[in-house]
Amino acid sequence: MNGHELIESAIYDELPYRIVLDLNKPFGLEIEVSLDDPMDRYYICNHYLEQKAYERDIDKTVGGNFPLEIKTPLLSDDVETWKDLSDLAKRMRDCSINFDTSAFQVNIDIDYDFLDCYYLLLLFYSFEHIIFRFSMSGKNSLRPLKYASSLENFLKNYKKREVSRIGLDGLIDNKNYAFSFKYRNRTSYNSAPNGFEARIPNGCSDAWMWQNYVNTFYYLVNVISKLDLDHIDYSLCYGELKQKDYLQLYLDDAVNFSNIIFSNDIDKIYFLRQYIGNDRAKAKHYLRNLR
Question: For the stretch 162-173, what's the b/e string if a residue is b when 16 or more beta carbons lie within 10 angstroms of its beta carbon?
Fold first, then answer.
């Protein structure tokens, strides 16, 4: 499908919650919310999920009176996983939750060398205006990015294009939770990171969006081994251009990003539906101007 057709399908097609995706590696989630009633934590993350190694925790980045962080075990892409997450989301909607201080995180294991880590960093930043808008979780704005900010400031100190631990250390296993992007490496100091964390600033109780986040970041991570470096905007990453407004609609860039990371049209359509979000009227106007 061409870009016009993908956008049209994203606007008009029925896109239900999927029974399974097509993921070959496990993933983990961290679901962060602020509760009005602290006892709701035992209803949302119930005994059934505890038996499956889901954990309740408190994360300082969540805020609010009664912060809750649900950490999943490593999950597989199967019917049971997506049913459990759908049921969890429904229980969240039964409770009073402040989503102004909520967030969401996708954790994916990686088998990268330092060069791969570097390319993922630059690809992510090249399309950060697309990824951040996609991460609004159906809202019209991003919450303050204190704990999930742009990589711009990190890259200002990354001028030498190093491909060693030294260059990436600010994103690896540290207490700096400022960025929307983090690497995990709990093995030897000189080894490359073994995990990627996508820190999504806007939380939600919509399992359809959770599924879309997992699918998108899974394929983003896995495209690096076959990445065409022409997709990396070095002029942006090294300060010659300014980052685009995260709240604006850049459909050409969004289609380009989806074509880079996905091979399946249905994945592109799901991604574009969430990217367009509440701006379907603007997307329809864009299509009319193409005719």
Answer: ebebebbebbbe
The Cα 255–Cα 3 span in angstroms is 6
Report CA-CA distances (Å) from 222 to 32, 194, 217, 226.
26, 13, 9, 8
- Which percentage of the chain shows pLDDT scores above 70? 93
If one compares 102 and 127, the residue with the highest pLDDT of the two is 127
pTM over 0.70: yes
Q: What angle do CA 28, 54, 208 make, to 5 degrees?
A: 55
Burial 77-99 (b: 16+ CB within 10 A, else e): beeebbebbeebbeebeebebbb
Can you read off the two tokens belonging to residue 115?
A: 């060069």
- CA 31 to CA 242: how far, in whole Å? 32
Rg of the chain on CA atoms, in Å? 19
Task: Enter the DSSP assignment of 114.
Answer: H
